[in-house]
Design goal:
By secondary structure, the chain is of the alpha/beta class. The chain has eleven helices and ten strands. It has helices at residues 33-45, 61-72, 99-102, 105-119, 142-151, 171-176, 197-204, 221-231, 238-247, 262-269, 279-286; strands at 3-5, 12-14, 18-19, 50-52, 79-84, 124-129, 155-161, 181-185, 207-211, 254-255. Helix 1 (33-45) crosses helix 2 (61-72) and helix 1 (33-45) runs parallel beside helix 10 (262-269). The model has no long low-confidence stretch (mean pLDDT 94). The structure holds NADP nicotinamide-adenine-dinucleotide phosphate. NADP nicotinamide-adenine-dinucleotide phosphate (NAP) is lined by residues 19-22, 52, 130, 161, 183, 211-216, 239, 256-261, 264, 267-268.
Length: 296
């Protein structure tokens, strides 16, 4: 496994991280806990040292499973990132809603305490807001609260998960210097983070966590067929190409595919070998950029 630095946090993170949404609990999307624990353990054995979860994933179930895995691996340095859900339950964060409705200070503190309990740890490596709207810069008491939690040793670093397909909706926040990392959708089709977000992250040394790199939704089928014929490859090779595409960008710190199965853990971890795609293949993939908006 190859490691990169998570921006200004200085934390070494595996190129392939573990997206822990899919292990949120039996009955939720059918994941069985034993299978989830096995997949997580295999990922750690293969060098994965970054896990992304959230308080909202199975109402803490994903965090509790990760807590079990942390206790089983006391000698391994594992970085865990979690997220605070918006108090008003509004996903994604709409414009015009004050931050006090989504992230009031007392709620940030209560959620952080809850995540620490679920994970069974004293300090969170990375606490993130699960949604963000750049209008919130300068509003409310969230920034002081995050600073206080850092001083109290409850969290080490702070980041935001950027709303789907709105990569520019964190640029003001990045300018403030109050954020250490961003989490963003970036993949072969959704290339728009390359325009302004990733350059801003490079300039300010912000860690970049890439989610939904595999983008396997049904509506992508036709685009996938075009991609396969253009690259002269097979559908089976696409997940590797998709992960390598985002890792080819030097500002990306880690990519966090969801992977409940051992097979996918093994296939994906093997991609974290420090080798990006050849530049000519990256160029070829550029023209598969596809502008979408799921919300219209
Ligand atoms: N708003 C937010 O902050 C937000 C939103 C969405 C996601 N996330 C984070 O991002 C993570 C990833 O998102 P995601 O799970 O929606 O999308 P994804 O990583 O793009 O896709 C995951 C899916 O791809 C499958 N898969 C994994 N590796 C594969 C391979 N090599 N070949 C074929 N299929 C493969 C997985 O199957 P199996 O699971 O069956 O192995 C799973 O069904 C989440 O777990 C979460 O941590 C955050």
């Amino acid at each position: 496994m190859h490691y990169r630095t998570l921006g200004r946090t200085g934390l070494p993170v595996s190129e392939i991280g573990y997206g822990a949404w899919g292990i949120s609990g039996s009955g939720w999307i059918g994941a069985q806990d034993q299978e989830s624990l096995q997949a997580l353990q295999r990922a750690i054995d293969l060098g994965v040292n970054f896990i992304d979860t959230a308080l909202a994933y199975g109402e803490g179930h994903s965090e509790r499973l990760i807590g079990q895995v942390l206790r089983r691996n006391p000698d391994t340095q594992i970085t865990v990132a979690t997220k605070i859900p918006p108090k008003n339950g509004q996903w994604p964060a709409p414009a015009g809603v004050p931050v006090e409705e989504a992230f009031p200070g007392s709620y940030i503190e209560a959620c952080t305490e809850q995540s620490l309990r679920h994970l069974g740890i004293q300090t969170l490596d990375l606490q993130q807001f699960h949604v963000w709207n750049d209008e919130w810069v300068g509003q409310g008491d969230w920034a002081e609260t995050i600073q206080r939690l850092k001083e109290q040793g409850k969290i080490r670093f702070f980041g935001v998960s950027i709303n789907d397909l709105e990569p520019e909706n964190a640029l003001r926040l990045i300018e403030t210097g109050l954020v250490d990392t961003v989490q963003v959708i970036y993949n072969i089709f959704e290339q728009s983070p390359e325009d302004t977000l990733l350059p801003a992250c490079q300039q300010h040394h912000i860690g970049v966590i890439v989610r939904v790199a595999l983008d396997r939704k049904q509506e992508v089928y036709e685009h996938v067929q075009n991609l396969v014929s253009d690259l002269g490859t097979t559908i089976d090779e696409l997940p590797e190409i998709a992960l390598r595409y985002v890792l080819s960008h030097p500002v990306v710190s880690t990519v966090i595919p969801g992977m409940r199965t051992l097979r996918n853990v093994e296939r994906n971890s093997a991609v974290g070998d420090g080798k990006g795609l050849p530049p000519e293949q990256v160029q070829k993939l550029k023209k598969h950029r596809w502008i979408r908006n799921f919300y219209v």
